[in-house]
Specification:
The protein is mainly α. The chain contains 24 helices and five strands. Strands 1-5-4 form a three-stranded antiparallel beta sheet. Strands 2-3 form a two-stranded antiparallel sheet. The two termini are 42 Å apart.
């Protein structure tokens, strides 16, 4: 099956499918005359109790959902997944769990594959919506359910008879890593646990183990042969020619691709930024990639790539990465507004990426797209001024908001009772970042003085900076060093690049005199306005043509 065969949009029209939604399925205000169904089901904890009678329209949805999956009707699966399930959730299960698998099992004739997929949605909903959050038992059960799902997919002798929409496949990988992240933080909060919880964690050391999570992701990558496919695709060849039996199947191909993004995220959470970029060496970020048309996947990819670049002190690449994805979000905003959950997620990531971009531009000023720059000035103008003046507390606040929730790859020492053990990985990354900032905290001020002069005595600049001449010479050498970074120029690997200086000013020291020269040619504003005038003329002409026709 070709990749494009799985790129479906949810249906907004009445389907001719014989298994279409039962009458009244979308009519939540209708009454059936059955008092059990006409009551308010907003408190659905009762659904988790074995033997409870589930209302007919929920039964109908579950049997229809099962039928679509068994028929491998990806178009209708996506409709049920993105529309039906979410609508029923909002109406009946907003803050409480869906019916447990033991209650659903008789309705779907104990269909094990469907029950595994249903439980994936069931536990994901508990993590996202139930106010008390998942219990320790539910965390374990969700892990074992993921094991069942991946064993079913990976241990089969041939491709399994299962087709799911790309959005669901991405959500599976994304949620798998999120739940591992949540569990890793949860087990480090020892002061809130009783002896039974601590004992259960000790006895289940292999549950949500980092090695098992990495093993799943690498196994999906290898099974799909996705790296070889991407390599051939980038060179202009046919990826199916090297995909193999499993890689030609859309399920394996997309799970393999999404697992690469999952590995990027996981290595970033563990603080291994080199390895995070290394796993994506066959993906060219600077070209449109047909393998991922899931917006959430695109946003996640660019966020973690940009953050890894920043922590590796490749600010120019980080700025380019964030500018590209923020421009993409601006242009596709209408898509996100039509899907509430995706809109909320993209808004949060949008704010984080603007925050990191602000820090990068303070540390490494350069010109970016005007529309992104105007949004940045509006959102973070004052904060950027504070950071330029050397306010370390502002850098720390921005890093706290914008950084991912870092993890420790190993369980804590359960004999310790420190209240902030879960914060140790974050504090380690924060210290690394602040040390880098402290080394160049004076550079924005030095840069502002250098841009005012063509020649400047060292003694005069030292007086401006309130430091000795020796200290100033050290800072000037630091300026030279920090403004020269590895910058991507060509190739598919994000680690490729060459050293470049992106500073707007350059200088050399002759005895006690600093000689300064501009390295950037001033922007030709006349050409910019002429291009904009031509664009407006084209728009006006298009509107006239449309109105006349």
């Amino acid at each position: 099956m070709q990749w494009s065969d799985c790129n479906y949009e949810p249906s907004h029209e009445q389907s001719d499918n014989p298994y279409a939604y039962p009458s009244g399925y979308n009519d939540y205000d209708s009454h059936t005359g059955d008092p059990r169904q006409d009551q308010d089901y907003s408190d659905s904890r009762q659904y988790s109790q074995p033997g409870y009678i589930i209302p007919e329209y929920i039964k109908n949805f579950l049997t229809y959902f099962q039928k679509c999956i068994n028929e491998q009707n990806v178009y209708e699966i996506q409709n049920a997944y993105e529309n039906g399930f979410n609508k029923l959730t909002e109406r009946f299960f907003r803050n409480s769990p869906w019916p447990g698998a033991e209650v659903v099992s008789p309705i779907v004739n104990d269909d094990q594959v469907f029950l595994i997929l249903y439980k994936e949605l069931y536990y994901r909903h508990i993590y996202a919506r139930v106010q008390s959050g998942p219990s320790l038992e539910q965390r374990f059960d969700s892990y074992y359910n993921y094991c069942s799902l991946f064993n079913y997919i990976l241990n089969a002798e041939g491709p399994v008879p299962l087709d799911l929409p790309n959005q669901w496949l991405w959500d599976i990988i994304d949620e798998f890593i999120y739940q591992f992240q949540s569990f890793s933080i949860y087990r480090c909060k020892l002061t809130k646990k009783d002896d039974m919880e601590t004992k259960a964690l000790r006895n289940n050391a292999k549950t949500w183990n980092v090695h098992s999570v990495l093993n799943v992701l690498h196994s999906l990558v290898e099974k799909s042969n996705i790296n070889r496919q991407l390599e051939v695709y980038t060179s202009g060849g046919d990826p199916d020619s090297v995909a193999g039996e499993f890689g030609q199947h859309a399920l394996y191909k997309m799970l393999g691709y999404f697992s690469l993004i999952g590995l990027l995220r996981l290595h970033s959470l563990l603080g291994d930024y080199y390895q995070a970029l290394k796993v994506l060496e066959n993906i060219d970020f600077n070209k449109t990639n047909k393998y991922s048309r899931v917006p959430a996947c695109q946003i996640t990819t660019f966020y973690y790539v940009g953050f890894a670049y920043m922590m590796m002190r490749r600010y120019q690449d980080a700025i380019r990465t964030f500018s590209n994805i923020l421009l993409y979000i601006q242009r596709t905003e209408q898509i996100f507004q039509n899907r509430i959950q995706l809109y909320d997620q993209s808004n949060k990531m949008n704010e984080k990426m603007y925050t990191v971009l602000a820090m990068c531009l303070v540390l490494h000023p350069m010109r970016i797209d005007e529309s992104v720059h105007s949004q940045l000035r509006e959102k973070f103008g004052d904060r950027m001024i504070h950071m330029q003046k050397g306010a370390m507390s502002e850098f720390e606040a921005c890093f706290y908001f914008a950084s991912p929730k870092f993890l420790s790859p190993v369980p804590p020492n359960y004999d310790e009772t420190g209240p902030n053990l879960h914060k140790d990985p974050y504090l380690l990354q924060l210290n690394v970042f602040l040390q880098e900032v402290a080394q160049q905290i004076n550079l924005p001020v030095i840069r502002s003085f250098l841009k005012l002069y063509t020649t400047l005595p060292i003694s005069k600049l030292a007086a401006f900076m309130n430091m000795s001449e020796d200290q100033l010479r050290t800072q000037l050498m630091c300026f030279k060093h920090k403004m020269k970074n590895v910058v991507w120029t060509k190739g598919t690997s994000g680690l490729d690049g060459e050293f470049q200086s992106a500073s707007e000013v350059d200088f050399y020291i002759n005895q006690d005199m600093i000689h300064i020269a501009d390295t950037k040619v001033a922007r030709r504003y006349g050409d910019f306005f002429i291009r904009q005038i031509h664009k407006f003329q084209d728009i006006i002409q298009t509107m006239k043509t449309a109105s006349s026709s």
